[in-house]
Amino acid sequence: MSRALPKYNKRRVGFIGGAAALALSGAVIAGSALAGESSGDGGDADARTLAGPGTISCPDVAPELPAIPATAQAEVDRNLGDLDKQIAEANKRLVDTVGQGGPNFVQNAILGPLEDKRVAAINRIATAIGRTAERPAGLDSLAACTLDAQGEAGAGEEATTPPAGEATTPPAEDTGQGSGQDTGVGTISCPDVAPELPAIPATAQAEVDRNLGDLDKQIAEANKRLVDTVGQGGPDFVQNAILGPLEDKRVAAINRIATAIGRTAERPAGLDSLAACTLTK
Fold first, then answer.
1. CA angle 32, 49, 47 (to 5 degrees)
2. Which letter does DSSP use for residue 39 in this model?
3. Residue 225 and residue 129: Cα distance in Å, rounded?
4. Three-state DSSP state, 148
5. CB 114 within 8 A of CB 85
6. Rounded to two decimals, what is the model's pTM?
7. Which of 62, 148, 161, 179 sits between 20 and 30 A of 9, alpha carbons compared?
8. Distance from C-alpha of 109 to C-alpha of 158, rounded to nearest angstrom
């Protein structure tokens, strides 16, 4: 099958320059000392080392796409470009947050949110193709990325890709949340998607219900994280570490709902406007 896009490398690997690594080495050394790590354990894969924070590697989406209809080419190219930007931004953040967070920082604050953004972009690509050709399946398997650690995971954590845990996250914002009304952190409020849906075909009902349930879980998890991370991060922490990733997850779930309905009825439009959430103090 011919491919309408140029061949890309199988994995896109963000680049962190030698200069950045040199500039960061002092910060990593200091972080290791404060954490009680031995600065000479560079050979231990599980130890914090003096090396740079590493780079983030993600599967390349372009080679896995089918022939792209001319009408979808511009949208597909734009979203492929977004995937590249997302990796570059994640690698920059990896450098900027050296020394922050706990043992799961990179997974929770960088790799997790990056995967959510990639799911949304990949969904947009599949939707664009699916408008005039068969919608490609299985592309979501390309969303997850890994940390190719040169040493420490960029934020004073383990050099290997940390397990996804609930947690200490430190991008950059204030705290505030919902399930912690007694603590005064506030709650996260999101538009209700269900009332905005058209009649749901019987064949789509189960998938729609499952994704509506996912939307509720996402809000509950975000509110819990709001409480768990009180006192972490800078002035933009809640936006960057909680509200932003939550919006990306909601975009992906809402897209799945629209796609499920669109298989046997008219695909609902404009639902993405319901993705953004706010912090209510």
1. 90
2. T
3. 36
4. strand
5. no
6. 0.46
7. 161
8. 14
CA 221, chain centre distance (Å): 15
Which amino acid belongs to residue 221?
A: E
Q: Give the amino acid at 247.
A: E
Q: Map residue 146 onto helix, strand or coil.
A: strand
pLDDT digit string, tens, across residues 230-248: 777 677 888 888 898 898 8
**CA nearest to 55, candidates 154, 165, 143, 172:** 154
Please determine, for residue 152, whether its predicted confidence score (pLDDT) is greater than 60.
no
Task: Provide the angle, in degrees to the nearest 10, between the axes of the packed helices 244-262 and 202-228.
Answer: 180
Token reading at 86: 């997302």
Structure tokens at 248: 């990306």
Which pLDDT value is given to residue 239? 86
3-state secondary structure of 165: coil
Tell me which of 14 and 227 has the higher pLDDT: 227
